[in-house]
Design brief:
The chain has 450 residues and is of the alpha+beta class. It has two domains: 202 residues, no CATH class; 193 residues, no CATH class. It is built from 15 helices and 17 strands. The strands form three sheets. Strands 1, 3, 4, 5, 6, 7, 8, 9, 10, 11, 14 and 17 form a twelve-stranded mixed β-sheet that branches. Strands 2-13-12 form a three-stranded mixed β-sheet, with helices on one face. Strands 15-16 form a two-stranded antiparallel ribbon. Helix 2 crosses helix 13, helix 2 packs antiparallel against helix 14 and helix 13 runs antiparallel to helix 14. The chain is elongated and about 105 Å long. About 4% of the residues have low confidence.
Length: 450
Amino acid sequence: MTFLLETIRLGLTNLRLHKLRSFLTALGIILGVSAVITMVAVGEGGKRAALLQIEQLGAKNIIIRSVKPAESAQQQGGQRRSFVSSYGLTRDTLKVIQENFPDAEAIVPLKEAGGQLIREDRTIPSQTFGTTPDLIRVAKLRMARGRYLSQTDMDDQAMVAVIGSEVARQLFPLEDPLGNTMRIDDKAFTVVGVLQPVGLSGGAGTALVGRDLNRDVHIPMTSCRAVFGDMVFRRQSGSFSATEVQVSEIYFACPTTDRVMTDAALLKRIVDVRHRDTRTGSTEAKDVAMIVPFELLEQKRKQALTYGAILAAIAGISLLVGGIGIMNIMLASVTERTREIGIRRALGATRKHIIWQFLVETGVLSAMGGLIGVALGVGLSVLIGWGVPLLPQAPFIGTFFPPDVSLPTQVTLWSIAVAFAVAATTGLVFGIYPARKAANQDPIVALRHD
């Protein structure tokens, strides 16, 4: 025990006598560890944000939605400025799905209605959908205020609406929307509820569902069919268009996550058979798309694993460079302290004592570098997550960033533990060769060294 304490004391004394050199030696380890923790934090934050956006669509859900065929989109931007197009899911397709999946947890249809939302002098484009009370459960929506649609609303064909948070902000900026009326085209609806922000605005979720869910308005399906029918009329910049879509979307909730991929394949077969393009002979539906959040979730997880492997390789290179720096300095230290080694050997120190002295020095260097690197990495991760959203407000450079820029970070304990352990191990491994070289010197030759 006395030998070990004395060896540690000698090692620490030597490091303290060369503070700047010791710091520069450990700098490679410090930067390597901090880079590892920061990169993992940024990657983990981005991964969790993307996974959360997908999970908000429901891991057990399959979303089937009507999409405008390519020729319709071309007509809209071409010479035909007024036209009517019919496409997408039908009530017959919905009925077939309901008959073939009696054990589904829920099958919720959505039907688009209206072209504009109007409140006094304020007008915004409509994202109104007729639906059923089950949507709030299946789509994992939450109420901020008021209530959601009820079965009584369905039975009575009530003229009530539940609006998204963005609709509430734009149409009712200075008043409580609950109990007030708004118009969907020329039809008046009473607002009975406001949804909580979904969190998909402008992110991966918007790309998945094709719209900002915070702009949605939900009305009873029975009222939607009775008041608006199947036609949706839109006027914009002098052009007129009308679309006839019987069912805009279907939220299909599987009984378990194990059934998601199997049910998705069966649903795709049903849709392809009933909506195939007979003119081109294509076996796939041209006006229906399918979104499987569970499949996207698995893809994101696999991408995260690949990204993690890349980060591990970068971390290994960074720490390898730090270890080489330690070995380089320790080899120079062996040459510099050759006479000291000779005197210690002449006084009775064994090779084991010499090895331990140099290993203590490299171990302390790598351990202290690892601790400083951990502190620096955690600090940078927190600073990035906090500071990036403030960049649009910064003078001069603020104009180069969008107003909603963000870079979420998530510091993980495993990255701290792994980075520190690898750093400490790297220092010890790269310190073995200089220590053995010092211990193997001939005492007589070492004493005569100038």
